[in-house]
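Entry 14. Ran structure prediction on the chain below.
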Amino acid sequence: MKEYIDMIPILGLKELPVVHLWNRIEPRPRSTRNFDRALRAEVRDALWMLTRQWQMGEFEGDDAGSPVFAKLRMDTTRLTKYQAGAHDVQKFDEGIPLEAKVEQKDLPFFTFDPLAPLKQRANTLDLRVMMGRRWMKLLVKNGFGALKNYFLKQFSISTPDPQEEKDALICAHPEAWQQFSAFAGKMMDGGALYHFLKMGKHTLDLPNFPTSDDLAAIETQFVAWFDEQMFLQPNVINEDAWNPAKLEYSFSCAAPEKGAEKVLVADEYYHGHLDWYNLDIDNTRPTLGEIDSEPSPEAKIVNSFLPTPIVFEGMPNTRWWAFEDGKTNFSFIKPDKTEPAKLMLMEFGLVYANDWFLVPFTLPVGSIAALKGMSVTNVFGEHFWIEASGRGSDEDWRRWNMFTMNTRGNADIPSDNSILLLPATPNILEGDPLEEVVMIRDEMSNMVWGIETVVSLPSGQAVSGNEAATAVRTLIQKLRNIAPVSVAEPIEGDDSEKPKIHYDVMSVVPENWIPFIPTHVKDNNREIQLQRAAMPRIFENVFNPKPEKIRPRTNLLQQNLANGEAYFIHEEEVPRAGIQVYQSYQRTRWSNGKVFLWLGARKVTGKGEGSSGLGFDRILPNTAKG
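Output, structure tokens:
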């Protein structure tokens, strides 16, 4: 008789290794080949649901309960003070984008004439003509059209003389010369009138004013039109945040907090977009300064929420019958061994994405918010009190948090986990550079050069700095009747009698290269800084015992030329890679729909070192041809 073995006790003892393997699990209809109904996975098919959950390991899940209710406590305050550089403290204005407030610079209506040091010349003819047209329209609109010829004569545009060196900056460029000649005697210089009115004067103060009528209402309209509708310009007394010694912006803000102030400082802003990471908390300053007192904007807010799961494109769907969005493909992420951030992103998106919930909290711009804690209730009725991450000592290297500001200093103080919401604009339209300076290191000459790669003509046009410098030099050479020298003069006689070498006192450097030489910081024998210098204007075969100095043409490098003082730049601001600084018009639209237009500066990394070819006392081969 054949014996049968009872396998149940044997399997219970686990004496035989067993491997369970499912290649695929799918419904199999028995009486039809139509799979439509089986693939529906209808809700009434409870067995299929349980099988699917078992296959996916959901019965072995160790996740905590999902939150269903949250209540949080938030302490908030608002920015109330603003200080540009070391100027006067003023009230923080949320009606202006912070980028426009910080970056705004004076429009270059006047610039210092490189051919006549310490003298100003009119600039930006295009803006001046536009302003003149506006004034003429206001006169006609208000019944003062008879005064047009008087203002046209009083604020006239002069015709440049190509035979005068003082007009070489205009006449050396045909496009600028043509514009000045076309507008001379026909258009009014509105920029000159604008500055006349900004000094607190009135049209009644003009010489031989032909009427006794007061034009104060028209003057107010004209100034308000330019200041409020056209360009945002700083009040020189308390709003200019540009730091010429660092070629960056510096500013500070403050907000009341617990009877004192929280002072936020930005010493090195040049990026073009402001956010929380641009400012640091300065605990050494108890207050930013005194202004008119207002009610404190501090508030303690307690809000209740229903937490919402975070959803993003490409997120793995927890429901098995739904397909994920194909716009995000995690399989295309190829992390390297040195890229843990990519691995963390994949882990968050593929494993823990459904563990994150969103608790929205709306705050006005210009706010500083600090989360004190949050009470969470999950689906099991459990209550948890959660505090902000990153709490503890500010010097604890194990502390980790995000989107919080740095606290200056190394004092062992409690960490500051507040979040700053700046009134910054998300998008800015940027025009072409009006001025551009490239600062490079020249190790052979042991100096730094400020190369004016883009300069602004008196007409307002931007041109190549090298071409502009060459054009001005050529015109001056022509006006002084200096013959251009391209090769050395031929020497009569046989080739054997001609000298093989010649002595060169100094090589010529393009006039758009402005030198910055290293000098000692005052009262310091070790630290150095870069001081603006000047190259002499030398023409070949012309002896001039006192050659004039070549002055910069850009406003970026004309700092302190007005008072004849030296201009210094911090030596560390020009690394080996160099820097590129430029000015251009910026435009944006604020939350209230108002358009802001201002002149701002940017700084980016350069392209490396360079060589000017400057040399002294050189013996060179004679390339003259007989």
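The longest strand covers residues 67-78. Will compare against last week's run tomorrow.
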